[in-house]
Design the sequence.
């Protein structure tokens, strides 16, 4: 049965009675004689709010029964309060989805595939084969034109004969029908909460679009969500302008400057690292030791490069490792003429010290929890009498 409380988007409070209260682990599933809470469906998010000042943790349907999930049990008379701001945003989003999708259906011959929305943005996946920026701009312009006209959004309960004049027989295949009509723009079956007229959408902005396997996802912001998101983004931008000591409109320019300086520093650092690796390589190549066991404060990529350079220039067995947050990353390198295989050596060590990784006969590496006895084991097993 359709809930007529949803006909008025600001029908937010209700006094009713508890029908049943079921305990499920550490929460309670409560069914009521009546409810103003909207249960998620049709692409519209569920309401949030309270019952007797207790937060409603979830709204669920099980085997045709609707339950309000709370952390406490309730019985008898109860008072429901739906969060107004959340309800308004969800109604704005859903009405805007109807408006945008119908315009796209009729004017651009692209079918609606799916609705979606979250805290930051909403939208719909539409069956466009191609989608140009000019089309996106036109869709946004049309939506805002209709919003400015303050077209009513009507909720109706038509008979079957009336409904099939506007929608397919499949859509009208229900005992009780609820239709949403937006002027001469849209007429569709819908059980969700809507704004009473398009002016309550305030303003509509398409923020991006992306290709999918079925068409294109079009992301938009509307009404209070648009205003809230704008404010959050502007606060971030203003914070950056303060940190960069530039006006808000100069943030991008300042960021580009600092980013270039950062890249220059990275390039300098890379050159210094290359020089350092080359010096260390020369050092280890020149020594007489056939087995090298060293802890070096390099990152994994640098360490791997150093080991590869050493074994490519001299006949040695190399064990090099770095320690990061109580974890070890070990690299084993074996020159092709050394007579031992790096992957077999690493497997032996990894089995004893629970390391994860692998490699080939020349270089193998991996890591796990650091154990101080790893170096001692390597020295006793592979390094004794060789260094």
Sequence:
């Amino acid at each position: 049965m359709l809930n007529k409380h949803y006909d008025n988007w600001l029908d937010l409070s209700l006094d009713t009675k508890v029908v049943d209260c079921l305990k499920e682990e550490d929460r309670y599933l409560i069914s009521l004689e009546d409810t103003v809470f909207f249960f998620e469906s049709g692409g519209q998010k569920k309401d949030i709010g309270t019952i007797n000042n207790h937060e409603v943790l979830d709204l669920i349907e099980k085997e045709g029964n609707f339950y309000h999930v709370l952390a406490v049990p309730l019985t008898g008379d109860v008072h429901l309060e739906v969060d107004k701001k959340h309800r308004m945003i969800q109604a704005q989003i859903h009405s805007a989805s109807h408006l945008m999708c119908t315009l796209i259906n009729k004017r651009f011959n692209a079918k609606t595939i799916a609705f979606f929305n979250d805290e930051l943005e909403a939208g719909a996946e539409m069956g466009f084969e191609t989608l140009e920026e000019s089309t996106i701009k036109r869709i946004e312009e049309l939506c805002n034109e209709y919003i400015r006209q303050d077209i009513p959004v009507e909720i109706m309960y038509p008979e079957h004969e009336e409904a099939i004049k506007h929608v397919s027989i499949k859509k009208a295949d229900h005992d009780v029908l609820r239709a949403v009509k937006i002027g001469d723009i849209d007429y569709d079956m819908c059980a969700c909460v809507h704004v009473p007229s398009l002016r309550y959408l305030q303003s509509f902005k398409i923020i991006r679009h992306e290709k999918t396997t079925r068409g294109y996802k079009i992301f938009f912001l509307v009404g209070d969500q648009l205003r809230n998101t704008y404010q959050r983004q502007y606060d971030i931008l203003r914070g950056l302008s303060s940190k960069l000591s530039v006006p808000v409109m100069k943030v991008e320019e300042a960021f580009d400057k600092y980013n270039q300086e950062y890249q220059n520093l990275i390039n300098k650092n890379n050159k210094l690292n290359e020089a350092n690796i080359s010096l260390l390589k020369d050092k280890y190549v020149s020594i007489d030791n056939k087995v090298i066991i060293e802890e070096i404060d390099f990152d994994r990529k640098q360490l791997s490069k150093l080991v590869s350079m050493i074994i490519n220039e001299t006949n040695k067995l190399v064990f090099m490792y770095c320690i990061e947050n109580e974890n070890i990353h070990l690299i084993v390198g074996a020159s092709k003429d050394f007579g031992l295989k790096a992957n077999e050596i690493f497997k032996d060590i990894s089995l004893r010290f629970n390391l994860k990784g692998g490699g080939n006969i020349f270089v193998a590496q991996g890591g796990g929890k650091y154990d101080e006895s790893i170096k001692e084991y390597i020295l006793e097993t592979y390094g004794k009498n060789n260094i």
